[in-house]
From TrEMBL:
<dbReference type="GO" id="GO:0003676">
    <property type="term" value="F:nucleic acid binding"/>
</dbReference>
<dbReference type="InterPro" id="IPR002156">
    <property type="entry name" value="RNaseH_domain"/>
</dbReference>
<protein>
    <recommendedName>
        <fullName>RNase H type-1 domain-containing protein</fullName>
    </recommendedName>
</protein>
<feature type="domain" description="RNase H type-1">
    <location>
        <begin position="1"/>
        <end position="25"/>
    </location>
</feature>
<dbReference type="InterPro" id="IPR012337">
    <property type="entry name" value="RNaseH-like_sf"/>
</dbReference>
<dbReference type="GO" id="GO:0004523">
    <property type="term" value="F:RNA-DNA hybrid ribonuclease activity"/>
</dbReference>
Length: 128
């Protein structure tokens, strides 16, 4: 047990404070059993604080794989044909909206006829 001066300046408590100080100095040390959950909680908080300190320091930070990305890179990969079609359709749709205040399904049909788009995206009806 450790004595902490807690009654300083409070009238009437100085005598109680004196007895508390004497109790820490006399006899055998008092062992108070602390619940396991309190001990675990305390160490868990310390571990989290330590981890946060290390994390914020950036001391152990590293870059494992850094690659510059360009939109063309995605287009070159196999299976991105649908993505390319969607981009073309979006560009055409924006152009049509600027001219006519809204895209028509006929615009998409025209793109299909020109070969710019191979098929209509499944979600096209959501945009009309």
């Amino acid at each position: 047990m450790v004595w902490v001066r807690a009654h300083a300046g409070i009238e009437g408590n100085s005598r109680v404070d004196w007895f508390a100080k004497k109790a820490t100095q006399l006899g055998e040390p008092l062992e108070v059993k602390i619940p396991y959950s309190d001990v675990i909680g305390t160490y868990k908080q310390k571990a989290i604080a330590n981890w946060q300190k290390i994390y914020l320091s950036g001391e152990h930070a590293h870059v494992s794989d850094l690659k510059l990305w360009k939109p063309e890179d995605d287009m070159e990969e196999e299976g991105d044909e649908q993505h390319e079609e969607e981009l073309i359709l979006a560009e055409e749709r924006l152009a049509a909206e600027e001219e006519e205040e809204g895209a028509e399904e006929a615009d998409v049909d025209a793109l299909l006829a020109m070969g710019r788009v191979r098929r209509k995206p499944a979600y096209f009806k959501d945009y009309i």
